[in-house]
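Format notes (please read before filing issues)

Several people have asked whether sequences and structure tokens are stored in separate files. They are not. Every record keeps both together, in the order shown below: the sequence lines, then the token lines. Line labels are part of the format and must not be stripped during preprocessing.
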Amino acid sequence: MAFEILITPQAEKDILESYSYYLINVSGTVAESFGLEINQAFDVLERNPYFQIRSNRFRGLPLKKFPFIIFFEIEESLMKVKILRVLNTNKNPVNWP
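Then the structure lines:
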């Protein structure tokens, strides 16, 4: 049985800002590739969200081609994965919220 993906407004903002950055500063092809990889990661989380535990309640799934990590929490009883943030791993973690 698949988990439902819930994206917080902050995670949605993270994704849109990163997509826009690639679109404006790199190319449309790279932006589309980024969007596809995000969607593929969400597909993986729907099937099996039990990835690395980063703290007591947060887990992380790094992207393969782009320097980002998806932080999420699992609500097992509701079969939901809540996407909290999508952060650039090239940025200093001290500056992460």
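For reference, the curators noted about this record: The longest strand covers residues 80-88. The chain has a mean pLDDT of 90.
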